[in-house]
């Protein structure tokens, strides 16, 4: 029997396998991304509900607290009942992970802050982290990551930036959708 965490992160595992550059994370096959310095985005804090829709029709919910402050980006992931699963922190070019439950071996923990940065960081900061054959375009509240003209990731945002009221991240190649709603305090 698979653990709920493994089922939740299974689509992300495929993306995070075998990075071509030890300092980069793979956003998709052939799409390396160097994490941006936390100070390249404004300070913010958000409690969020993340609903994962997998290609097999399965759905999982994760609660996150995301904070960018003082030159550090922190992401705390919990179950809907409040059990902390892991904490990822990006500071001074290093990524640290405090896993409270065993994480799947193939999961690159840099993937989650990379997706946060793709969705929330200023466009020019995101572009600086991409390789030469990848482009990132923005049209109003929609941002799209393209490789060879094909959509790798897209994000649609509502509300004020960051952290936005809601985000819809989609990876058409994997059939993965993440609906993120910022929770009221």
What's this model, at a glance?
With 185 residues, this protein is an alpha+beta fold. Helix content is 16%, strand content 45%. The protein has a single domain, classed as outer membrane lipoprotein receptor (LolB), chain A (Clam).
Protein architecture, described:
The protein is α+β, with helices and mostly antiparallel strands and 185 residues long. The protein has one domain (4-182): Clam (outer membrane lipoprotein receptor (LolB), chain A), CATH 2.50.20. 16% of the residues lie in helices and 45% in strands. The protein is built from three helices and twelve strands. Strands 7-6-5-4-3-12-11-10-9-8 form a ten-stranded antiparallel beta sheet. Strand 11 and strand 12 (176-182) form a beta hairpin. It is globular, with a radius of gyration of 15 Å.
What is the radius of gyration?
15 Å
CATH architecture: Clam
Unreliable runs, pLDDT <50, ≥5 residues? 13-20
How many helical elements? 3
Can you give the helix content as a percent range?
Answer: 10-25%
Mean pLDDT: 86
Strand order of the largest sheet: 7-6-5-4-3-12-11-10-9-8
Distance between the termini: 36 Å
CATH fold description: outer membrane lipoprotein receptor (LolB), chain A
Query: Care to count the β-strands?
Result: 12
Tally of distinct domains: 1
Major sheet description: 10 strands, antiparallel
| Shape call | globular
CATH class reads Mainly Beta
Strand content: 35-45%
Task: Please trace the helix and strand order, writing H or E for each element.
Answer: HEEEEEEEHHEEEEE
Structural class given helices, strands, pairing?
alpha+beta
């Amino acid at each position: 029997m698979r653990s709920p965490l493994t089922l939740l992160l299974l689509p992300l595992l495929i993306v995070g396998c075998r990075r071509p550059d030890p300092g980069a994370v793979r956003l998709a096959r052939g799409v390396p991304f160097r994490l941006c310095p936390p100070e390249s985005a404004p300070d913010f804090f958000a409690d969020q509900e993340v609903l994962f829709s997998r290609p097999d029709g399965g759905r999982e919910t994760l609660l996150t607290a995301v904070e960018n402050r003082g030159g550090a980006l922190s992401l705390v992931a919990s179950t809907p009942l409040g059990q902390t699963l892991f904490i990822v922190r990006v500071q001074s070019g290093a990524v640290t992970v405090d896993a409270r439950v065993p994480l799947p071996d193939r999961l690159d923990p840099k993937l989650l802050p990379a997706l946060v940065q793709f969705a929330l960081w200023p466009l020019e900061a995101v572009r600086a982290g991409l390789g030469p054959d990848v482009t990132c375009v923005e049209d109003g509240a929609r941002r799209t990551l393209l490789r060879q003209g094909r959509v790798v990731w897209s994000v649609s945002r509502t509300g004020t930036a960051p952290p936005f009221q809601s985000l819809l991240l989609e990876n058409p190649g994997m059939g993965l959708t993440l609906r993120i709603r910022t929770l009221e305090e």
